[in-house]
Amino acid sequence: MVIGRVLGSTLLFALALNVQGAKVTTERKGKDSHVASEDRLKRELEDTAQRMLAIIQNGDPKELLNLVSRDGIELSVDWPAYRIAYIRRDFNKKTGFYCALFDTNCVTRENNEERERAGAPKLLRPVCSYREVLQKATARELKVSVQESASGGWQGDVDISLKKPSAPGYGCDEPVVVHFVFSYEDGKWKLAAMPYY
Question: What integer pLDDT is reported at residue 10 of this predicted model?
Answer without folding.
Answer: 35
